[in-house]
Design a protein that fits this description.
Layout (H helix, E strand, L loop, with lengths): L3 H6 L11 H123 L2 H17 L6
Length: 168
């Protein structure tokens, strides 16, 4: 490719009947000027293209990095969600186990209390029967004629004296 310097240094041979030297020089000066402008513009555009290519490559690398970052973020979010779901399932399972254990303990305690209640009812019934028997015996003694009382007192003195509180 011709450079502006090549055009400036170009010399033509002189001949008879040749072109007007002044016109050729003037035309060459104009071509040189235009060519120099185009040459500078071309060099500037080449620099601009190189800069834009480098910038495009930088943006392409940045885009790739962003894509990779998004993929990693998505994987992390998926892993976090999976872990949260597993943890929730574990918590629910533990809560169910604890609830079941509490229910079992409640049933066991209820059974103990029912057994205790039944035992206490039996004791109360036995106590009532014993008290009724003692009271009926005392009423019978009060209602008996005086003679029988004396005999009954003589017979029962040993027994009654042994149990002054009327106890069991």
């Amino acid at each position: 490719m011709l450079t502006p310097l090549d055009i400036q240094k170009k010399e033509f041979h002189r001949r008879l009947r040749g072109y007007s030297e002044a016109e050729v020089d003037e035309f060459l000066d104009q071509v040189l000027e235009d060519y120099e402008l185009l040459y500078r513009q071309n060099a500037s555009l080449k620099d601009e293209v190189g800069r834009l290519r480098a910038e495009t490559e930088r943006y392409a690398n940045l885009e790739e990095t962003l894509k990779n970052t998004l993929v990693l973020a998505q994987k992390a979010a998926d892993a976090t969600r999976t872990n949260a779901e597993k943890e929730a399932e574990l918590i629910i399972s533990q809560a169910r186990s604890e609830a079941q254990a509490l229910a079992e303990e409640g049933r066991r305690r209820l059974k103990e209390l029912e057994e205790e209640y039944s035992r206490l009812q039996s004791e109360v019934a036995a106590y009532k029967a014993q008290t009724r028997a003692l009271l009926l015996g005392a009423v019978a003694l009060l209602d008996a004629p005086a003679e029988e009382k004396g005999e009954a007192e003589a017979d029962g003195a040993g027994e009654t004296g042994a149990q002054p509180d009327g106890g069991s």
